[in-house]
Amino acid sequence: MTLYLLRRLLLVFPTLFGIIAINFFVVQFAPGGPVEQMIAEIKGRGAGVEGRMTGAGVREAMPGQSGLYRGSSGLDPHLIADIRRMFGFDKPPLERFWLMLKGYLHFDFGRSFFRDKTVLALIREKLPVSVSLGLWSTLVVYCVSIPLGIAKAVRDGSRFDLVTSVIILVGYAIPGFLFAILLVILFAGGSFVQWFPLRGLTSPGAEHWSWPARILDYLWHMVLPTIALTVGSFASLTMLTKNCFLDEIRKHYVLTAQSKGASRARVLYGHVFRNAMLLIIAGFPQAFVNILFTSALLVEIIFSLDGLGLLGFESAISRDYPVMFGTLYIFTLIALLTQIVGDLLYTVVDPRIDFEARR
């Protein structure tokens, strides 16, 4: 297992390099970079801005689009050169890429073009929101889907199985953001009752409350966003759990245990559970990462949660390349490491698995 883990860890570096390199060079052909946006803003404000921009400071070189905006015609060439130098685009693409990689080796992702903060500071600021959404959503999905999938497997073909299948498939078909709007209308003061808050993770002034009150306030704020994120996530895990248990229940060792007089609960949870839960438990880290970094943007907007989803969207729209590439690097690294953790969980759940024995 040690050699297998070593090989997987060594593969992380070329994978990271390939993903960053591909995205970097694709961005070189994307129109509307920060240089073009600044030039367009100057032309919109008039010549008064031109004089102030000539003495602009030089920021750290970061990746971005290197072409000149056609609307820059008529501006002072020295001003255009200052703008390109301010964003670091006075260097050729390969040099910018090399400087970026050197900084990434010691987790120096530079500063945002438009927020006047470092990329790491922005991620630390937004991370609690996304971690809260990802963690609670994953726990709720697992705590509901696994017992429900086991119950459906035991009652396969019954009315309970049919009704629950219809319910989870309807939930799967409803977009999360649409269900979030419905929750706001029903329970957050939209048109009916206001049982839950609509904004943020805490109430105003909560920092002065006692710890129990702050914890309850935090959980109170997380109810509606968590429900909105999980309503469409039950179907796949529930059906996976059901099918895994059905496959195991039909095997010979189950019939042997039953013929020896073992109770139904002992057969189900003492013999079937470990084998059936192999894929489900081992996939927990990857499921958490998927919920953490995807499908939360619109939910964050609806419930006014300033998390990583909103940060990534705004950075892509504004062409804030340091934030775009810094978050891409961190998210990719976390995803690759969680896949390795998932492989480790395979061996924990079933010690018979040996990755080194494979040819």
What would you note in describing this structure?
- The protein has 359 residues and is mainly alpha-helical.
- The chain has 2 domains: 31-108, no CATH class; 120-357, MetI-like (MetI-like fold, Orthogonal Bundle), CATH 1.10.3720.10.
- 70% of the residues lie in helices and 0% in strands.
- The chain has helices at 2-27, 34-45, 47-53, 77-87, 93-105, 119-154, 159-173, 176-187, 211-230, 234-249, 252-259, 264-276, 278-282, 284-293, 297-302, 308-318, 321-349.
- The longest helix is centred in the middle third of the chain and has 36 residues, at 119-154.
- Mean pLDDT is 78; it is low at 47-72.
Question: Quick gist of this model?
Answer:
With 359 residues, the protein is mainly α.
How does the SSE layout of this entry go?
Elements: H1 2-27, H2 34-45, H3 47-53, H4 77-87, H5 93-105, H6 119-154, H7 159-173, H8 176-187, H9 211-230, H10 234-249, H11 252-259, H12 264-276, H13 278-282, H14 284-293, H15 297-302, H16 308-318, H17 321-349
Helix pairs in contact: 1-17, 2-4, 6-9, 6-10, 6-14, 6-17, 7-10, 8-9, 10-12, 11-12, 14-17, 16-17
| Total count of strands | 0
Total tally of structural domains: 2
Cα-atom radius of gyration: 26 Å
Order of helices and strands: HHHHHHHHHHHHHHHHH
Structural class: mainly alpha
Mean pLDDT: 78
Describe the biggest sheet?
none
- List segments where confidence is low: pLDDT < 50 over at least 5 consecutive residues: 47-72
The percentage helix is: 55-70%
- Based on the coordinates given, report the CATH architecture of the largest domain: Orthogonal Bundle
Termini separation comes to 14 Å
Query: What's the overall geometry?
Result: globular
Q: CATH topology of the largest domain, anyone?
A: MetI-like fold
